[in-house]
Every structure is written in structure tokens, then in C-alpha cells.
Amino acid sequence: MCIARIKYCLLFTLYLLSAGLAVAQDAHFTQQYANRLYLNPAFSGLGRDWSVAVAHRNQWPSLNGSFVTNQFSADYRFGETKSAIGVVLQQDRAGIGGLQKLQASLAYGYHTRFTDNLAFSAGLQTTIASLRVNYNNLVFGDQLSDYGQTALTSAEANQFDPTSYVSFAVGSILYNNNFWAGLNVLHLNQPSYGFDETTQLPLRFVANAGYKFYLSTGLTRNNAEFSISPALNFTHQQNFNRVDFALYTIYSPLALGVIYKGVPVTGADQDQSLGIIAGVSLSRLRIGFSHDVGVKGFGRQAGGANEISLVFEQLNLNNLFTPRRLSKINHNIVCPAF
Q1: What is the overall mean pLDDT for the chain?
Q2: Does 255 fall in a domain?
């Protein structure tokens, strides 16, 4: 194969990878509620005084170059005020070509009560993202010989300078002691980015909702919980639509969940996978693990995904488990921990 053709294939592959990251390959965490600030900035400061979380996701591990996401997030609520802040740092590494995406997000959350049994949270988020190609992972045609030997350097010019963009998002959550419903709208300014040719990031809508049914625990210790929570998640971006259905159960301190991603209700032929979630919640630490099994589409051959999350948090148990005075702000939310 001639060098020109290899270069063309490389350009085409990078274009597909970058387009995939923009529209369909944004990280979709199986443990979405362990990564709440990434799901919706309105989660900043809900249900806790502060938190620090790390997450690792390895998608399609059967590929020679899988899609790996590492994330750090933290949030802090300003006492009994209505305000909270959050920050998310994330790295995505896509494929053997070494396409890397780094992003940093800063969020502000505002919480208030509508009635004695209904609360609302709103969030604003600003994200700075940068994409670059790691040329150390690429092999060009002039580095190959008839015997398969590889030269250390190539005469090909590195044409892809790092590209960056700024994006804005707004989110909201309506909730009470049994249900939650949220909407996050990303890329409000539809920023342009690209290596050789620029493209616009389309608006992305992420809606989620669920309801918690409390069951008799049979446990005598304080704050023990036995519950079942069905939940839905809907994502829309340009021509991409996906519906996820999940069922979570908590039997303190254990949590189990199952989520079916890509429920075939939108009429589109898309990947479908089944995720199994297991977690444990200690006094200030939550540990979660999940594994996705491909059911239909590319993920079935590529090995699904594995995900690990660690969350350190400080809970105000008086706010979470005792009746609140009307002068207080309701910071409790009953969504799953994982």
C-alpha cells in the first residue's frame, strides 16, 4: 500500500473517531449516579455536604485499542445555603490511534423548595475541552519494509495540532422523598472544533427519571434501607436517540442494579448492552463495580465494558433522615448511589 493511501486511511479513521466522540462516543457511564456531576450539574451538593469521586471505564476491551475514560469529580455545599459548586476533570483515550480528549468542567448548583414535599435544583456548567492525537501510537507507510520491520521515525508531517473548545450546559432536577426527574442540555453554544476541518457540536439532551419504593427492611440498626427503584434515561443528540431502562435495589449497605442500554423503542438499529452493577456503601465511602455485556451490535464482539467507581463523601444524617423545618432547604435526593 502506498504512503498516500495509508495517509488517506489515517485521516479517515481520525475523522471517524473525532466525530464519534462528538456525537455518539461521549462517555456513557453505566454507574451514572456514581458520576452525578457528569450526568447533570444540578446534582452539585445534593444529598451530601461534600464529595470526592474517581471513576475508571474501559469500553470494548477486546479491541487492540479500547476506549478508556478516567474521571475525577468533587462538589461542595455551602452550609445550609441554597448554593453549591462542582468540578469535573475527565480524560478520554479512544482507540489505538491515540486520540485523546481532556476536559475540565466547573458547575454551580442552586437548591430550593417549592412545597413541603417538592424540591428543585438547577445547575450551570462551563466546560473547556482539548483534543489531540498521540503520534507515538501511529505507524506510517514509510516506517514499514517488506519484512515487516518498523523504522523509528517517519517523514510524514504531523498536521494535526491540538484543538480546543468551550461548551456551556444547563441542568435541572425536580424531586421529593420518592421520585426524581432531571434534564441536562449540553453544548448550548454549539462550539466548533476539528483537526483539519471544523464541525459543530450539536445540542445534547439527557433526561432521567425514577421512583423509589421503600420496603420493610427487617433490620434494627438506624438508617437501614431496603428499596427498589426503576429508572429511565433518554439521550438525544442530532440523529442519535437512546433509551436506557434500569432497576436498582438497596439492602443496606449493599446495592445491586441492572441496566439495559439501547432499549429498542426508538426504531433505530443501534447497539444494545446489559449492565450489571454491584456496590457497597460504608460510612463515608462508596465502592462500585459494573460490567456491560454486549447484546446486539458492535459491542457484542468488542467485549462490552468494565467500570469502577470510588466516592468519598460527608453526609449530614440529620438532614437526610429526620423531618426538616420549613426554613431549611431540602438537600436530600433519593436517586441510586450507583
Answers
A1: 82
A2: yes
